[in-house]
Amino acid sequence: MIEITNLTKSYNGKTKAVDSINLSIDRGEIFGFLGPNGAGKTTTLKMITGIIDIDGGQVKINGVDNQKNPIDAKKQFGYVPDSPDMFLRLKGIEYINFMADIYDVPTDERKGKIEKLAKVFDMNSALGDQIQSYSHGMRQKIVIMGALIHDPEVWILDEPLTGLDPKSSFSLKEMMRQHADSGKTVFFSTHVLEVAEKICDRVAIINKGKILFCGTIEEMREHFKANESLEKMFLELTEDE
C-alpha cells in the first residue's frame, strides 16, 4: 500500500514539477499512473522511492514513512527506474547477486529465484555477459529481475514495458496481475494508454504536476458521459492544461 499526501516538488524554487498531489494505492490492485512526457510521473516515483528529496508532503509505504524511516521504507518495494542503463560493467548475474545482497536474499534461495526469472524473460544465455553488451530490451529485463529478486510486496515500475519484446511484455503484465491478485500492490507509470486500459484496476492522470483524474476506467467514462476510448478521454483531460 502506498499513501501519498500533499506531495510537492519544485525546481529552481519556482517550477512545480509535482503540485501537492494526493493518492492512495491499495493492496490487491494494479494502479496506473498516466501522463504525457514531462507531466511529473518520474519525479513522483523518485520521491516515493526516496531517490530525490521531497519539498513538501508525506509518503508512506505499507505504513512506513519514507522520510522518517528511509531504510525500512525501501525494504517494502522493488523499483524499476525509467532508464535501465546502470552498472554496465557488471555481468548480468553479478548485478542480480548484487541486488540480492542488498535485500538480504539468502544464498540458498537465490539460485531458484534467478532461474525462474531468467526463464520468464529468456535471459539464461545472457547472464554471463556484461550489461554494457546488452540491447536496451535486455537491460530492461535485467533491471526488472533485480527489482523482483527479493519478492517485494510493493512494485513501483516506471515505464516498465518500454523496450521489451512482446513475449516478455506479456509475461510481465501477467506477473503484475498475479502479484496484485495475491493481495499485493503494483504502481506503474505509462504513457501507453492501451496498456492501462487493459490491466489497471484504477488510474490517475497527471499533467503539469497536478492530478486531473483518479478512479477506474469505467468511472472516467462515466465522467465524460460517453463510451469513448481512453486515448480520447486522456487527450481531452490534458489538452487544455
TrEMBL record:
Q: Known CDD domains for this protein?
A: ABC_DR_subfamily_A
Domain ABC transporter, by residue range, is: 2-233
Alphabetically, the GO molecular function entries are: ATP binding; ATP hydrolysis activity
- Name the Gene3D superfamilies for this protein: P-loop containing nucleotide triphosphate hydrolases
The UniProt entry, under InterPro entries, shows: AAA+_ATPase, ABC_transporter-like_ATP-bd, ABC_Transporter_VariousFunc, P-loop_NTPase
- Which Pfam families does the annotation name? ABC_tran
TM spans, by residue? none
Q: What are the protein's UniProt keywords?
A: ATP-binding, Nucleotide-binding, Transport
Q: What is this protein called?
A: ABC-type transporter ATP-binding protein EcsA
Q: Which organism is it from?
A: Clostridium oryzae
